[in-house]
Design a protein that fits this description.
- The complex is a heterodimer.
- Chain A is an alpha/beta fold.
- Chain A is built from 14 helices and 16 strands.
- In chain A, helix 4 packs parallel to helix 6.
- The longest helix of chain A is centred in the middle third of the chain and has 15 residues.
- Chain B is mostly helical.
- Chain B is built from 14 helices and no strands.
- Chains A and B meet through strand 15 and helix 13 of A and helix 1 and helix 2 of B.
Chain lengths: 433, 334
Amino acid sequence: MLRSAFRGGIHPPDMKQATAGRAIERAPVPERLVVPASQHIGACCEPTVEPGQRVRRGQIIASIDAFVSAPVHSPVDGEVADVGECLTAAGMRVPAVTITPDAEQDFESWEPVEGGEPAAVVRSAGIVGMGGATFPSAVKLSPPKEFTLTTVILNGCECEPYLTCDHRLMLESPERVLRGGRIMQEALGAKRLVIGIESNKPDAARAMKTAAHGTGAEVVVLPTKYPQGAEKQLIWAILRTEVPHGKLPAAVGALVHNVGTAAAIADAVDLRKPLMERVVTVTGRVARPGNYLVVLGTLVRDLIETAGGFVGEVERVIAGGPMTGPALGSLDVPVTKGMSGIVVLGPGDAAAPVDADQPCIRCGRCSEACPMFLQPFAIGTYANARLWDRTEQVHALDCIECGACAYVCPTRRPLVQLIRLAKAELTARGVRP
Amino acid sequence: MNEAARQHRLVVAAPPHVHGPGSCRSIMLWVVGALAPAALWSVVQMGSPALITYGVCIGTALAVEAAWNALARKPQTVTDGSALVTGLLLAMSLPPLTPWWISAVGAAVAIVLGKMVFGGLGWNLFNPALVGRAFVVLSWGGVLSKLPSKGWFRAIDVAGSGSLDAISGATRLAIAAADRAAKGGYRFDLAAQYQPLLFRNLEGSLGEVSAALLILGGLVLIWRRIIDWRIPVGYAGAMAALSWAFGSDPIFNVLAGGVLLGAFFMATDYVSSPMVPNARLVYGIGCGVFNAVGRFFGSMPEATTFAILFMNGLAPLLDKIFMPRTFGWVKRNG
């Protein structure tokens, strides 16, 4: 059954054909890993190891005693070469542990473990939202008492162009994904477990349906439309209810987790395996586009080598999908828990940067595309004029920064940046959504 | 510092890194393309006077915009296509024998007073082509309405039995208006005029030669999602409904005069029309209502220009009234 989509949205070419058919393969461990102490939203961890110290795969190397945080584990057996700082894909400088991995690595020795309270296990395993938001998963598994959670939704939409890591994961490990969903459903006492998948991944939907057969979990195929994987739009598509302005999804009884996160939770609870590696789609202008299982801390430079290096002229290297991911200024940034893809674009693949401020011609396409029913042109115009109160009146804070407005704007106004500016200004003034 | 990055000159830009098809220029060119069949047909029918009017209007519009930007030391915008559309629309709203200097003044006024003084494309409250047309109609209305007939400008055979010299030069619309004012019933069957109005109407302005070609162009723009169907449908629907209510032929009144050119190509101008879907429908209906009221009760049978300009002025208000709610801002009753 195909549900109708949310209102608004766009249909960018999905560009997934280069990697959708490539089975996940393990990327070689590079000679040096740079593991940031902060790979999540929330309090930054502090390194707990010293240079020269031996570390084992799965050992905690950075942590902090804060509720909204997630510890960081060594992804390999090796030796700490340095404890310092590194640049992240988001352009921030954070504490980081540099590790020299051993020549031989044992990736397989995980024994099944019974019992354990899921929220605590997930917390100590350092699991965060792997769709890109990197919100610590344990926090979502410990909802405030006033909420009754009825539905756990697994997000297998993967609506960003180019990315196929979730697609391959659902296709190759549907049981792990489903198991993670089951663990959350039981832990929260939710009635329903729903997996939402976009219609452009029929093989993944079939695999998940087969795995879900007889378990009571539902697989829902959703129209291919960006941003179908945005939390509020996904909840609407499945529950036909809007998350109220300024509230969490829990307010409507829903909890959304990325399918990669679900698989990681299954590994954490069943094997006590921390989050140390993830699937990354490397695609675009590289020799061997594919879906690679990468140990965290691998530098993008090394990952691109794994994918055969650049092909032809390269203009942008994007961490994540092209709709929301930052373009990297340096390839010496590490793969982190939330990095779902490296998309290499050349001249002509990417939109040309706009050099001057272009006029809004009031065509209304941004309003039509906005999945939050905002008037992006209005926020942009007010932000340009520094009329911050007006940006609040037109609900700038409800923007989810999906970029659909900027994608359709015929004069290529930098609408997302203008709206982010407005949001930053309003937040600084203490305005809450 | 970073070899690969330097070697490849990595561009650091904010997302989204991909952009949909369509630019300001491509939209403008689609509008020109949609108008082209009707414009070319008018040239075929009316010959060199039509060509001169098109040439003067478009040439002046482009030259004036280029000159304005040069004098004001602003970035050159003449290539964005909007001046081309303005010049073309103005020409199509004028009779073919319009003296060239009137066409030139109209185009210059359209660009300067209609657009550039507001800050250029995107900032004007009124449709530039209609501002230009309103200016020349108010200034030289007598000249425009008494243009001589040439050989190609046929007398209208209202009786269906040979030419009537007495009314040669007057448009079907003017004759119908005179008949309505005289209250003696129409001298001719309005329904019999559908076919000439649709395919080969050699009276009035250049844009009135073929209603069918205008409808075709308008449907292409709706199909390409360049214009919103709500404006032309609201406009033509209101015009037809009121014509019927006032005891005249609804189809004749939609086909005659500038209604179709206005409904598909003038009222749908992005900058001067509302953006909110419901506001667009109300705006379209408003245009049709004022056009009908002007036609049936005003001094000019041709009321399109001022109907649209009036609704242009109301567009920001309509946007405000019909602003949709934001996602999540719905009242929840448990």
